[in-house]
From TrEMBL, chain A:
Protein name: Glutamate ABC transporter substrate-binding protein
PROSITE patterns membership: PROKAR_LIPOPROTEIN
GO cellular component: extracellular region; outer membrane-bounded periplasmic space
Annotated InterPro entries: Bact_solute-bind_prot3, Solute-binding_3/MltF_N
Originating organism: Haloechinothrix aidingensis
Domain Solute-binding protein family 3/N-terminal: 97-316
Length: 328, 465
């Protein structure tokens, strides 16, 4: 092209060319659409993580919902603090330690204190009381941490001697395992973000509400209409609330109080809408153990209960007195 | 022919109404006529010996220069390919591997840092931070090359988007844990879930894609240049035929020029064959004993890292830790088979037998066994509810502890990976050296051969004057 351009230049007056070329350039530049700026990465939307094992409504369990006509909180009469030979307690004593199924994620009831490396909380101390009665030494207990859903299987398979893990006694569970007398009265309430304006479970229609899988709370939420979200551990509910993946957490006020302690932007709202009597779970058939534990709890109610309550629960939930034991 | 034809077309289109068109037509007509004349003259002269000789000479010289050009380009291409392996492809694959193992390492370390007491936390924390930094830096390096392959670019995107989220969760876990809040452990579990379900699979995919590209390039580098070889053999045949023809025509046994040309071509052929055989064998050896062994070792090391993550997570996620404990047993079996010397480690040992990494792999097998035993004791303590002892055994650097066994295993496998990479570099460098000066040599030899033909045939031609 260069030689031809030069020839043209020779033929035409130079100033014309000088004027024409930019005009031509402009004309070419204005022709046709210019296209759009190229985005190499496109519009990226954050994918928010969730805790592992998030699920939905609870499966229908055989008889769990319907069977409410037993006297759930009535346990067996205590039978003194003696440990007869051949009894379940004697086996435990010979082993050298009690094995208690507990929680490590529920602040104030059963949690792992990173400063001491120990499990601490109200439930932990109750388990220590039982160990103290058998061995005269509250430290001779080994804690196995289990999820809510593992409580009954752990008892039925004999993996643990007792379960002290915010375990509500009810008729459906009584069909599978034994329970001691009630050592704590809780009630289901709702934890929400303080700024959310929610006052009770009724305000949460159509919203996502979190509870631990296998818990009675999850069943109660599912009945009260909101969209239930289940997670393996209660702490996962707080994670999801903090990450705004659920609008509320609904369970026993005791557990919610522990969560509110961990996050001051949340609050426990509404009146308790269920009664959640906590009892110690005991493997099926160990009736001697039930009577023995009830004897221990009698002592605790009279003596240590207030001290433990004041230490763990009182600062958050206010004063309370030990629940009365009921026997059949 | 295409170039003048092409430019004629453009001009005709561009200046169809130009007054100069007849001139162009005359020029083209002249050109065609010239070619016809030349062809006629050639046909006439080919009927006579001198004419035929010149034509043979021109043909031979052309073929020689063509073979010289093709083989020089081929040799240079081979050299470039093997140097590309050394300087680009393998290092990029190694970066992809680093992304994968650094991320696995970060996951394995994060849980431990949450469990341990203060002095130990410090050390684990540093290791975690280093792993994250390494993963980020290596990702940036791997990303450039990954852009060439859409699937790989996609994996880089996933890692790039999720890694900051992961570190955010780990920091949230840490902040909560420091205050004694159990929700910290839940955040860590969420982080671990994110790592396992999203980030690590992407890192694995990226690594596998890069490994595949490396293997492909190694195969290409080793491939035999069939076309060039056929061309060169054709040239030798033509040279021999010409000499036989001259021998019959002139009754002289040897034509020095053509002998020089033949020798030059044969030397080229021999040199190329030897160089390519050495090259192919060395590239192959670098692939088999180097990169493939390193690849197997990388998979093994990553299984070990994931098992370690499960081991520590089973203690952090107490209560929900059973799946992690099961994860450890499964990965541990994958690692060492049923007897501790099978599985991935067994395969690696077989592959490394007699090589520089043999010792390291044998040690790694012992480490894996003591690690497995330590985990059994951790499990016992944990099942008995003796949590403190279980953590102590998992984290502390005691002789009996899981941490020591795991770190020894990890170090040995890392070193074995480095041995594999070294093996690759050694073999592939030898392969590259085998091609040293070959392109230049082939070019020079082909010029020598062409000169030999010109001189040799020229001598005969002079006899006809």
């Amino acid at each position: 092209m260069t030689p031809r351009t030069r020839r043209h230049a020779r033929r035409h007056p130079r100033h014309l060319l000088v004027a024409l070329l930019p005009a031509l350039g402009l004309a070419v530049a204005a022709c046709g659409p210019a296209g759009e700026p190229r985005d190499l990465s496109g519009q990226v939307v954050a994918q928010r993580p969730q805790p592992a094992g998030v699920g939905g409504a609870p499966p229908e369990e055989d008889g769990e919902v319907a069977d409410d006509d037993c006297d759930a909180t009535a346990s067996l009469e205590p039978d003194g603090a003696d440990i007869p030979d051949g009894s379940t307690m004697a086996e435990i004593r010979d082993r050298g330690h009690l094995v208690a199924g507990v929680d490590q994620n529920t602040f104030l009831f059963g949690f792992h204190n990173p400063a001491t490396g120990q499990l601490e909380g109200f439930d932990i101390d109750i388990a220590r009381e039982v160990a103290g009665a058998i061995f005269g030494d509250r430290d001779r207990v080994r804690f196995r941490t289990i999820t809510s859903a593992e409580r009954i299987p752990a008892l039925r398979e004999g993996d643990v001697d007792i379960v002290v893990r915010t375990m509500t006694v009810n008729c459906a569970r009584r069909e599978h395992v034994e329970f001691s007398s009630v050592y704590f009265e809780a009630g289901q309430r709702v934890l929400v973000r303080a700024a959310s304006g929610v006052d009770s479970l009724d305000d949460l229609a159509g919203q996502r509400v979190c509870a631990a899988e296998g818990s009675t709370s999850l069943r109660n939420i599912a009945e009260a209409a909101p969209e239930p979200v289940s997670v393996p551990n209660w702490s996962d509910c707080l994670v999801m609330l903090q990450q705004r993946q659920v609008e509320a957490v609904s369970t026993d006020d005791t557990i919610l109080a522990g969560m509110a302690e961990q996050d001051p932007t949340t609050e426990v709202v509404g009146e308790p809408f269920t009664e959640e009597p906590y009892a110690i779970g005991i493997p099926p058939g160990d009736e001697d153990m039930v009577r023995y534990v009830n004897a221990v709890l009698e002592d605790v109610r009279e003596d240590r209960w207030d001290e433990l309550y004041d230490r763990w629960i009182e600062p958050v939930l206010g004063g309370a007195s030990p629940p009365d034991a009921r026997y059949r | 022919m295409t170039t003048p034809g092409g430019s004629w077309n453009t001009d005709a289109d561009g200046s169809g109404e130009s007054p100069r068109t007849p001139g162009y037509r005359a020029w083209i007509g002249g050109l065609v006529e010239l070619a016809q004349q030349a062809f006629r003259r050639l046909a006439v002269s080919a009927a006579r010996t001198p004419g035929r000789l010149s034509m043979i000479a021109v043909g031979l010289v052309t073929l020689t220069l063509l073979v010289g050009l093709v083989s020089t380009v081929m040799a240079q291409g081979k050299k470039d390919a093997v140097d590309g392996l050394l300087e680009h492809r393998e290092p990029v694959t190694a970066e992809a591997q680093r992304v994968y193992s650094a991320l696995s390492d970060a996951e394995a370390t994060a849980a431990g840092a949450l469990l341990a007491d203060d002095s130990e936390t410090e050390r684990l924390r540093e290791r975690y931070e280093d792993s994250i930094a390494q993963a980020g830096a290596s990702l940036a390096k791997a990303a450039a090359s990954a852009q060439e392959v859409p699937e790989a670019a996609e994996q880089v995107d996933i890692i790039g988007q999720q890694l900051p989220v992961y570190t955010g969760l780990v920091e949230t876990a840490r902040a909560n844990d420091r205050q004694g809040f159990p929700v910290g452990a839940s955040y860590l579990q969420e982080a671990s879930e994110l790592m396992r379900s999203t980030i690590l699979p992407a890192a694995q995919e990226l690594y596998e894609l890069e490994t595949g590209r490396l293997a492909e390039q190694q195969r290409d580098a080793r491939s035999f240049p069939v076309f060039t070889a056929l061309l060169a053999l054709g040239l030798v045949a033509a040279l021999l035929a010409t000499q036989r023809y001259l021998q019959r025509r002139t009754n002289r046994v040897l034509n020095p020029g053509l002998v020089v040309a033949t020798v030059a071509v044969l030397v080229s052929l021999l040199w190329t064959s030897v160089a390519l055989v050495v090259h192919g064998v060395q590239v192959g050896s670098g692939q088999r004993d180097g990169t493939e062994q390193a690849d197997r070792l990388v998979s093994t090391r990553i299984v070990a890292l994931q098992a370690r993550a499960d081991q520590t997570m089973s203690l952090v996620a107490r209560g929900a830790g059973d799946q992690h404990a099961e994860g450890f047993s499964r990965l541990s079996r994958q690692l060492g088979g049923s007897d501790g010397a099978g599985g991935l480690l067994g395969e690696v040992r077989e592959q490394a037998a007699g090589g520089p990494a043999e010792e390291l792999v044998n040690e790694a097998i012992e480490n894996a066994e003591s690690w497995r035993l330590a985990d059994e004791r951790i499990r016992e303590h944990s099942d008995e509810g003796d949590y403190g002892a279980a953590v102590e055994l998992a984290i502390s650097a005691d002789d009996e502890g899981a941490a020591r066994a795991f770190h020894a295993l990890d170090d040995n496998l890392s070193q074995a990976i480095d041995e594999g990479r070294q093996d690759f570099v050694d073999s592939t460098t030898t392969a590259s050296r085998a091609l040293h000066a070959l392109p230049q040599g082939l070019a020079v030899l082909s010029v020598v051969a062409a000169l030999g033909i010109t001189v040799g045939v020229g001598e005969r031609l002079r006899e006809y004057r």
